[in-house]
Amino acid sequence: MDENTRLLRAIVRLLAVQIAAGETPGVGRERSQKVNIKLLASAGLPASEIADLLGTTPNTVSVSLAKMKRDRFGKKSRAAKSIKALPAPDPDGDGNIDDPD
Q1: Rounded to two decimals, what is the model's pTM?
Q2: Helix crossing, 33-42 with 3-21: angle to 10°?
Q3: Read out DSSP for 38-53?
Q4: How far is Cα 64 from Cα 69, in angstroms, rounded to an integer?
C-alpha cells in the first residue's frame, strides 16, 4: 500500500470515528447503534471496521444491515411468515360461521 492510500484510509477512519461519536455538524450527539451502523455503512465501511469503531461484533453489524435492508423493501421476517391466520369467531357456537341462527 502506498503512502497516499495509507493516509486516505486514515482520514476515512477518523471521519468515521467522528460520525460514530456524533461529532458531525448538525447531527445530535445521542444516536442509536442502528443509526451509526447505517451512517458508517453508507460511507462505504465494511462490517468489520464498523464493528471495530462501535465496539461490537461484525456479525451484529451484518445482521443489523440485513434487517434494515429487509425493512426497506418491506419483506417479512421468517417469524412473520410463519404466523397463521386465526379462524373467524363462531358467534353462536354451532360450528357454522355463515349462519347467524
Answers
A1: 0.55
A2: 150
A3: HHHHHTT--HHHHHHH
A4: 9
